[in-house]
Amino acid sequence: MLKNHDYNYQFNIDKFYKNYLKGPKIFNNRNALDPSYIPEILPHRDVQIKDIAEKTACALLGDAPPSFLCYGQTGTGKTATIRYVSQKLAQQNSEIKPWWIYINCNVVSTPYRILAHIYNTISREEKIPPTGLPKDIIFKKLLGLLDSKVKDSICFLVLDEIDILVDKKGGNEILYDLTRLNENLDNCKSSLIGISNKLKFRNSLDPRILSSLGEEHIVFHSYDASELRDILNERARIAFHEHVLKEDLIPLCAAVAAKEHGDARKALQLLRKAGELAERAQSKIVTSEYVEKAQEEIERDYIMEFIKGLPLQAQLILTSIYLISKFNPDHIIISGDIYDVHSEIRGLIPGIRQLTKRRISDYINELALAGIITADVKSMGHYGRTKIIKFDIGIDIIEKVLCEIDKIQGILNHKPILLQTDKVKLKNNIFKKLI
DNA sequence: TATCCACAGGAAATCAGGGTGT
DNA sequence: ACACCCTGATTTCCTGTGGATA
Whole-model pTM above 0.90? Predict the structure, then answer.
């Protein structure tokens, strides 16, 4: 490993680039493995393409297409299929060119911002500020804009990850307004397309919205291994040079992804990462060992990025769990312990507020949802009901990430004092017997 | 078998920080 | 300057609960 202060050896960057250019070429066009890439052929999605094409075709004649929903787990090609159809629709020889507005409700996450996003996408000149105005004003402005700018045409509103929006407050209201847009429009028509990966989310949907949106829906089933193979073959043809992939490689990637509920995005990511690792190693071909390495690296990258992106308070919660398992490896960690240790270490960092137990409980759930820890609710009888917390991944990875966070580095060797009392130790011994 | 612990987790309120038009 | 808007993070208030213990 290179160290910053080792001046006897310096990385020769010129030589590196020269070798890189001379070395074996793996990729022909690596963009083809991108999740956003829309291929000419979408294998195993004929039924859905036909369905969507039929629903949306009347837009070419100026009629309002029905609103509908698309269901399917992540990586089943929902977004890609919609984009594919929209592209084809735009290529048709028709007077009417529909507008397509994509909104990822995970990114554009509040009612206000959704309205503003739609407005700003259509309007070139006047933009709506990111905050400050009342919602109903924006809504009226949007209606005016649609009538003038999208005149005599159709506006498709695609709401990706719509389930996230519905769970938020005000989410149902904005959806209701959007489904009823047509009633308030004079010169143009609109159609709402919702994309969700949870079937259940219909339960939390306002029945009025369901009636205008949910009656029509298209299901995207998960891909099986052989279908994933077809997808990968199709993309690999474009992405890689000839003969760089070992013949068992694509079946391997497909099999791995098939286990993860047939997620095509994962399969593509895996293939790409394997290719990149082979490229970095200056290998002429991509072999299965690169797939294995890629799998590990993807997993680790994901966790590290996730933790780095967490708010500082959540990182401190994680640090609390880390410190307990580091200094008291056989201690059974419960919510109360985390609260105590958090209170202790947050005092070591200036400007960090004390949190309530309620808030900490939510942070613990978030970490559990991300797969970093497990937090199982268990009743300890007379000792109350609480969560039992354990790390779900190697503590070395946690340590590595926490070391990279400026404000936390300094406290990683702080031994929690609160857990040293006999009272706590005694109680914990009883817990051990109860589990 | 009633009790009671130490929380879980839902709903609503509050606060601070970004903004608006008048 | 003022009244008001939207958002995200957090607090406040609250009701619910599994099962060891008395």
Answer: no
